[in-house]
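Listing 4. Sequential folding, example run.
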Amino acid sequence: MTTQATGILDPTAGPVLVVGLGNPGDRYAATRHNIGHMVVNELADRNSQRWNVHKAGAAVAEFRLGIGGPKIILAKPATYMNLSGKPIAALLKFFNIGPENLIVIHDELDIDFDNLRIKRGGGEGGHNGLKSTTQALGTKDYLRVRAGVGRPPGRMSAADYVLRPFSSTEHETLALHIDRAADAVESLIEHGLTVTQNRFHQK
């Protein structure tokens, strides 16, 4: 499904699973940790899709990207962040998708707010959702869209910071940040990793 040497996604070879990481429930919906949910919600809205409950333990939406385009499965695990891997693995098995056709969208403390970085594989950087995903899949070789939320101010702990809503200043450009991350997902599917990095790493 991919050219492993270059990390280019080839959606013509099969479905693509796009997972937005986050925590379930209204309490967490507007927090920094849930920006992955926000991005897949944007992708569902763009394609006029409603979410359905899947037995794998996630909300899913299925559609084709463009006329005659590749099949896309959007997903939001119904578990808390640190247990994300189990439903992701179950969805890959159900839809017969390899990890190489998995895109995970998540918040990233080490990237400034309103910036994106896209990569395949690598470490988890302390992110519990990625740790769970890597453990469940037995591989780190999946694509990540890293949506920057920046470092916590002062002595605030990272755990407290990501579970708080975006600031009023951040809200001024949050919609654009989410929109740009959704664009990056579409670019990954249509044009591959290298093209997407060249486009979205420029800021």
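-- end of first protein; second protein begins --
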Amino acid sequence: MKKKKLGILAALGLSASLILGACSSGGEEDYKFLSIVTGGTTGTYYALGGTLAQIITDETGVETTAEVSQASAANMTALKDGKAEIAFVQTDIAYYATAGEFMFEGDAIDSIAAIGALYPETIQLVTTAKSGITSYEDLKGKKVSVGAPGSGTFANAEQLLEIHGMSMDDIDAQNLDFGESSESLQSGQIDAAFITSGTPTGAVEALSATTDVVIVPVEDDKADALIEKYPYYAKETIPVDTYKSTKEVPTVSVLAMLAVSKELPDELVYDITKAIYENTDKITHPKGAFIKSETGLDGIDIDVHPGAQKYFDEVGAGK
């Protein structure tokens, strides 16, 4: 009798091991919900994130939701801490995170990989006609929103000030999000704001509805100097009429990308990648036009998730 019981227990133990093994194998069926961390409600990340979440839900059957967040740097920490599975992030910030540089100095994150690049994120120095600010040099001594410390916008502001011979010490820096920046510009509480986001940016559009908006240009020689020192930047032009403007404005940009936890199984990430890049016709936001498989690996300087790489290899966009 005892031997029979032992045999039954052994069989049950083996069955349990097989079940646990199947669960720990990281199959797609283990993920019923996914979270995409985006940015503030007035930025492009959040607006686009909702659409991408719906596409992933529809195409993969895994319910996916877009979450409000403090954007790039905070999103990398959320992936590391397991609080999200997918994240919007600037290409420069993703690099800093994996290399342990700038805001991630001494705290490199090795648990994230890329899904792919999305669209240019334009660095916009926004002010109003009544401020009288027309150049970077005019910022000295002025109240300027530079985003949250450690954010992508903060890093961009710091580097652009540097190229123009200034630092945070030369301005009265204010740590506001895009919506707060827009409201503070309108009320005159600040003089200018750095906003790194795909254009048109909702917060700036809202401001332009009631105020004459001015985007301060980055002159060609300064853009060249910036790109030489920080190669992840590119020259960018804000088109006429973007914010009721009558002329193009030269500036610079980085790329928006999607990063993912390396723990997600290859099959699931393959399906997510395929869902995004093959359903861009369902994206109504203007930045949807930039999301293409052939440019999906542009500007990516971190590991690409094997599932995403499989998709790009299949469509001929291998890294």
